[in-house]
Amino acid sequence: MRLFVAVVPPPAVLDDLADELARLRERFAPDGPDDNYRWSLRAQWHLTLAFLGEVPDSARTDLHRRLGRAAGRYPPLRLRVAGGGGFGSVRRARVLWAGIDSVDGDPRTLRALAGSVSAAARRCGLDVREGRFKPHLTLARLREPADVGR
After folding, report:
1. What is the arithmetic mean of pLDDT over 86-112?
2. Which residues contact 40 (CB under 8 A, 6 or more apart)?
3. pTM, 2 dp
4. Which residues contact 13 (CB under 8 A, 6 or more apart)?
5. Quick one: three-class SS letters along 90-115?
6. From residue 47, how far is each of 10, 110, 119, 145 by CA, in Å?
């Protein structure tokens, strides 16, 4: 089974984001649907902490236990949706995203949690690739790169 570990924002945050996204969609496609933007469904909005790829059934119980321990090492996080942009570059974006950061402005705890999640998965024998962690919610994927800085 292909798995990832993620944080799902509370419904009230998703409500606010949906309202803002409606305005944003109008800005990017004022004349109606734009076939270049494949907008993510609200049910898909999440903050990925680690992508695990294929996880054998035999590893899932140990993984669940280790992820619970990893999460238990951290206090509840106070996060906010803040900023956004495009992956690629502003002028040649392929993904439109909303940023996530800490309410207190210190991203270290969230980054440490993501690192602990990856470490827990590796201890289960999973090959987890760690790249630069960029906390975000994916809002849309673009079929063709576009300028999202307007």
Report:
1. 85
2. 137, 138, 139, 140, 141
3. 0.86
4. 81
5. CCCEEEEEEEEEECCCCCHHHHHHHH
6. 12, 11, 18, 23
